[in-house]
Amino acid sequence: MSATTAIVPKSGAGNAWIAYGALLIVGAALYVLSTFFPSEMPFWMPWEFSWSEYLVTVLSLAWFARGLMRLPRADHPPIWRSVCFALGVLSLYVVLQTHIDYFAQHMFFIHRAQHFVLHHAGAFLIGLSAAGPVIWAGMPDFLKPIVRSRPVQATVDFIQHPAVAPVMFVGMVYLWLIPAIHTRVMLDVRLYNLMNWTMAVDGIFFWCLILDPRPKPPARIAIGLRALLVLAVEPFQMIVGAVLSLSTIDYYPVYRICGRIWDIAAISDQHYGGLIIWLPSTLTSFAGVICVLVTLRVNDEREEREQANS
Questions:
Q1: Segments forming the whole domain that contains residue 241
Q2: CA distance 194 to 188
Q3: Residue 159 located in a structural domain
Q4: φ and ψ of 214, to 5 deg
Q5: What's the predicted TM-score (pTM) here?
Q6: How many other C-beta atoms can be found within 10 angstroms of the C-beta atom of residue 25?
Q7: Mean pLDDT value across residues 288-309
Q8: Neighbouring residues of 230: CB distance < 8 A, sequence distance ≥ 6
C-alpha cells in the first residue's frame, strides 16, 4: 500500500485535529491583537489581519509537513525544494500580513515590491519547489474529491493552457496598473484584496507550469515551449516598467491622497516602482529560462541512463 493511500491511525487523525485547533487559536490571537492594538504591534505582526491569508499560509505549511511525514523517505523531494517551498509561502505571508502591507498602501514603489514577491519571487520559489505531491499526501482526504472535481480541474486546465497562461500573467500586471483602476482599487479594501489574491494565484499557477521538473507527459507542456512562454512575457513587462520609470507624468496621484509615509517626490516614487517592474522581473524571467534549460538537461540525462540500463 502506498504512503498516499495508507490509512491514518485514529490517534494520528486526533493529533491532526489538535494541530488544527492550535492554529485556529493562534489565528484568533493575531486577530484580536491586530484589531484592538494595531499601533502597539511590532513590524512583523499583521497590520490588518486576514483569516484567508493566514489559513492559506499555515495550512499549506502544515499539509506539506504532514505529507513529508506520511510519504516514505524515497519519495521526499530534495531538501532544497522543501526550503524553496517554505521560503516562497512565508515570503507571500510577509508582504501581505506584516506592516509591509501598510507601507504598500502608501508608497507606490513598495506596492510594486509587494507585487514582485506575489507574482514573481515568492510564486517562483513555490513553483520551483514542485511541492504538489507532498501537499497532496498531507491534505485531508475529504478535500481531495473537491480538488479532483471537474469544475476545479477545468479551471486549472484553462489557467495553465499555453495560450492563456502568458496572457493572464502579463494581463494581471497591466490590468491593476491602469491608472483609473489602480486608483479605485487602492481606495476599496475589497478590490485591494482581490488584486493581491489574483496576482499571487496567477503567479503561482504560471511558475508551477513553467518550472515543472517533469517532461511531457505527465507535465502539461513540453520543456521547449515553457522557455518560449517566459521569453514571450518578458518584453511586455519591460515595456510597462520602462514607461513608468522614465515618464515625467505622475500616473498615480492616489498615493498623494492616501498620504505617502516618506518624503519622496511622487515622480521619484513612480520611477522606483517602474524600475522594480523592469529589472527584478527581467532577472526572474532569466532565472526561469535557466531553470527550464536545466530541467531539459536533467530529463535528457535520466532518459539516457534508462535506455542504457534497459
A1: 79-309
A2: 10
A3: yes
A4: -90, 155
A5: 0.91
A6: 10
A7: 88
A8: 210, 285, 288, 289, 292
